[in-house]
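LAB NOTEBOOK - FOLDING QUEUE
OPERATOR: T.R.
BATCH SIZE: 2
PURPOSE: Compare the predicted structure-token outputs for two unrelated chains run back to back under identical settings.
PRIORITY: normal
REVIEWER: second-year student, initials M.K.

ITEM 1
FIELD SEQUENCE / FIELD STRUCTURE:
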Amino acid sequence: MAWSRNMSWTSYYEIPENLCSLYLRRLGTKKKEPTRAYLDELVYLNQIKIPFENLDTTLWSEPVSIEPTALVHKILLENRGGFCFELNGIFSLLLQSLGFDAHMCPCRQLRHHEPCPVPATHCGILVNLEGQQLFCDVGYGGPVPRGSMVLKTDVIQSIGKEYFYLKNSAELEGWLTLYRKSSNPLKADLSLVQIAPISCYLCDFYGQTMLRSQGPSAYEEMHAAIKMNNGGFANLQNYKLRVKVDDKDTMRIVSDEEFPLVLQKYFGIMKNKHSERT
């Protein structure tokens, strides 16, 4: 008897043959030995070359799939981005194809305006490497580490020019909270996500993908974001574009007419769709 009414889960455990070569070509790097230095390189390149974006859900009303061949088509052949389950999903497949012991793990977003915890509809990646368990995230669209960090609590870790640390979460036993240390001593450190350090399969996030892409629990605000290799970023949220380069920080409203050009210039997205405000 089939477990599902009209689908098979087999494809979620198969890495498409062309995934590795297409992915490394998009990142502009080559296959190397699975070391931490190479992992950090891949995380960094992913964050500056592949944008976080939820435009299928918020702008174009198209279905979102994390089935591996669908991820290859969207992110590697169409040169699109995606949201967390898409980006960390395909990145975990890349790591596995390169010989890393990598799996996805559940996470909970902490940067929101709800008065209570929201569902755990984020994810990250756990990598067991050289006797350590590492955490990385290429699907956040915000100020997460630009490399891997050791999954160890109460230790400040330097990643790039930024500092992060993990603490045991007070609310849920077994979960960890990731903080970004503030560079301003007058400001509190920024709590980013809660992490459940358990290894999961890609298909374990099928339901969460539907939760964030369909119905009343789907993304409400249109969002596209990417980091830049000079330490800056571009962030488009509900037609408000913010671009930070070095010490220059600008913000402006994007018109309907220039919207496709903004998507192409800052995020590399050239989808041929209309972009009326929703």
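ITEM 2
FIELD SEQUENCE / FIELD STRUCTURE:
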Amino acid sequence: MRYLLVMAIQVLLFDQLQLWGVCHPYIYVLCLLMLPITLPHSVDMLIGAAVGLVMDVFCNSIGIHMASCILVMFIRPYLIGAIVNDKDRLNEQITLHALGMEALLKYVVIMVLIHHFTVFMLAAWSWNYIGFVLIETFVSGIITMLLILGYNILKFK
């Protein structure tokens, strides 16, 4: 239910928000990042495709979000395996409490930057705009990461 709320907030609020012309926070990626780690990889990919498709429909973005979400969900189990030690793998959820701040921060930073870079690069569709794409990725990524980490901190207070 909370993932539907996050998607609604993304569509109704954050898609309308553009700060400084380069900040486009995509908090809906929280829905993908916080999925249980026990899901099969194929289910991860299907969920990523569905979330991306919903965002594409509401953003009128012709597959950009779907491609980005599928890429993030493809990379996710490998990144989790690299960041999380075996003892922590017993926890089903990816949360601040389960992983600790350092591991969660690494995970969120890498995944958000991959997602945002893919979205903005596909939207630009040219290497001529790489400088602008990197600025958009950095600024939007920082705001998105702060919102996701804030959510995790508030969730366990």
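REVIEWER COMMENT (ITEM 2): The chain has a mean pLDDT of 87.
FOLLOW-UP: none requested
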